[in-house]
Design brief:
With about 270 residues, this protein is an alpha/beta fold. It is about 40% helix and about 20% strand. The chain is built from eleven helices and 13 strands. The protein has a six-stranded mixed beta sheet. The protein has a five-stranded mixed beta sheet with strand order 8-7-9-6-10. Strands 5-11 form a two-stranded antiparallel sheet. Helix 4 links the parallel strand 7 and strand 8. The mean pLDDT is about 95.
């Protein structure tokens, strides 16, 4: 009798925003393991451990990956796309897209026109939501003029929140879905912030598996996730995460992201 395969890993590192929210993701992954009959080990891979190390693991079963680094890999080197989430929020419009909210301190009166002169914070340079999206937004405001001051890397949305709260920066971008989760479950964490604007949409970070996973494992995980909204327990878990369903990723949409980033590089340079 051949030994059982080792467990695949599951990780929502991009959206592990608090212990409570992490627990909701753990619930999803435990449901997924049961529904797909695939043994999954839930890991944290907590900051400041680089996400690139997580995405290089050969045992990924269901791991969130930002669309920008996914799109920059050669097709032969990419992990296997499983699904992309569809948020219940209005900005998603029923599609597997997200955006970034441009945020500042609530007690500071600011208009969109003021933002070009502000100190901007950013997360990491391989992030769509925390780096490319706010730079693309800034370029549309500033007419090609550089930002007066930028500050980073702040690593993640919590880093942006803390930098605004401490006064290190005036404005930054928070993944709109991360903001949705915080509004639902940790409203005090963002009570001091105001949303000034929302960026153009981009394809939602997707769940991926490593190329080394068996095809039947990948198929089982994908099928369970795509059917989650039809299962009573799955639907309840999705609702607790502010999601309507999972959808098949539109890979062509992800492949537009490098061109968008390059256009901003040409206009602004790097932050």
């Amino acid at each position: 009798m051949s030994p059982a395969p080792p467990p695949a890993i599951a990780c929502s590192r991009m959206y592990n925003l608090s212990p409570k929210i992490s627990g909701l993701w753990d619930r999803l992954f435990h449901w997924l393991a049961h529904r797909s009959d695939v043994e999954l080990e839930v890991i944290a891979h907590a900051a400041p451990a680089p996400l690139s190390e997580l995405w290089a693991r050969p045992d990924m079963g269901a791991v969130f990956m930002c669309g920008f680094p996914f799109s920059r890999l050669a097709k032969a080197e990419r992990p296997l796309p499983l699904v992309a989430p569809v948020s219940l929020a209005d900005w998603a419009n029923g599609q597997a897209v997200y955006a970034s909210h441009i945020v500042a301190a609530r007690d500071r009166p600011l208009a969109k026109a003021d933002l070009a002169a502000m100190r901007w914070g950013w997360t990491v340079r391989d992030s769509q939501s925390g780096y490319n999206a706010p730079r693309e937004f800034f370029a549309s405001l500033a007419g090609g003029q550089p930002a007066s001051k930028t500050f980073g890397p702040l690593l993640n949305p919590r880093g942006v929140i803390e930098a605004i709260r401490s006064g290190a920066v005036d404005v930054g971008a928070i993944d709109a879905y991360a903001c949705q989760l915080l509004e639902m479950h940790e409203p005090d964490m963002i009570a001091s912030l105001q949303v000034i604007a929302t960026t153009k949409p981009a394809p939602f970070p997707l769940l991926v598996a490593s190329q080394q996973q068996a095809p039947e494992t990948v198929a089982a995980l994908r099928a369970a996730l795509l059917g989650a909204h039809k299962d009573p327990v799955g639907r309840d878990i999705l609702g607790s995460l502010g999601l309507a369903a999972f959808a098949e990723p539109d890979i062509a949409a992800y492949e537009l992201l490098p061109a968008r980033a390059h256009a901003v590089d040409e206009a602004l340079g790097t932050w």
